[in-house]
Amino acid sequence: MPTPAELRERLIRNFNDVPRERFQRAPLYDSEAASLTKGTAARQLGASVDTVAPGQMSCPYHLHHAEEEMFIILQGEGTLRVAGERVPVRAGDVITIPPGPEYPHQLINTSDAPLHYLSISTQARPEVCEYPDSGKVGVFSDGLRLLQRREAGLDYWDGEP
């Protein structure tokens, strides 16, 4: 039987204590993320606490074919770019993004203060993501990460005997 300390290690993360990783690509992208589920017993859910710098974006505009996502705005305000529109968001808002091509999305900090939010997603694998601005397609699975432009695809029979 696991001890309370072992259970805490497997099941609990405090978002104030988790190490943060910075993602920066000037001039548009600057954010920090801290995984809340890495190394836990979680199998189907992923979560992180994210901070986007003022005037910056968290990640490219994209859509998922398998994963469903939820964003809970903890502090600050910004803009949700979704389905070709821009929708204001603020602290207390809960955003749900189902999988599929109807809701490509991106969070943008359009304010002068940091935007803090909780990201929650199903960890569906394999996953296919599309990036409408760049025309990229990504395929992600255990041990596989493939990104290419949609038009760079091969014929089904290419290379086969």
TrEMBL record:
Lineage: superkingdom: Bacteria
Keyword Acetylation (UniProt): no
Claim: Metal-binding is one of the keywords in the record: yes
Any Pfam family matching the protein: Cupin_2
Record keywords: Metal-binding
InterPro entries: Cupin_2, GPI/OXD, RmlC-like_jellyroll, RmlC_Cupin_sf
Residues covered by the Cupin type-2 domain: 51-120
Name of the featured protein: Cupin domain-containing protein
Organism annotation: Pelomonas margarita
Lineage of producing organism: Bacteria, Pseudomonadati, Pseudomonadota, Betaproteobacteria, Burkholderiales
